[in-house]
Design goal:
about 55% helix; mainly alpha
Length: about 120
Amino acid sequence: MNEIFRWNATEADLARVIKKFEKKLKEAINRIDFATEALAFYYYVTDKSVPLIEKSPAIFGLLYFINPFDLIPDIIPFTGYLDDAGVVATLTSYYSKKIEPYRERAKMVLDDSYIDVNYKIIQ
């Protein structure tokens, strides 16, 4: 995996994802079709049993999702999340089977009920 992805995420990168992910997901939940996958990747990158080097692409992908001023700024109606969807789709393809247990957990959390601003997604 390291030969494909030459830059490695740091603990500081992971801390930034942990700090900002839930707020971003709540802001975007009604405008994106990839919430389950994004949350699954959050669970994956916060799993302490997964080595940091293995989750580097996922950490960078989530940092891209969190950043509102990326290739297509998220504030643009209808198209603002297209680039984010592409990043998450690429990660989903790259990690395929590794992400499945985390996807099941994300589905349970997101299907449990509607998400409001007071609902704690990260459990």
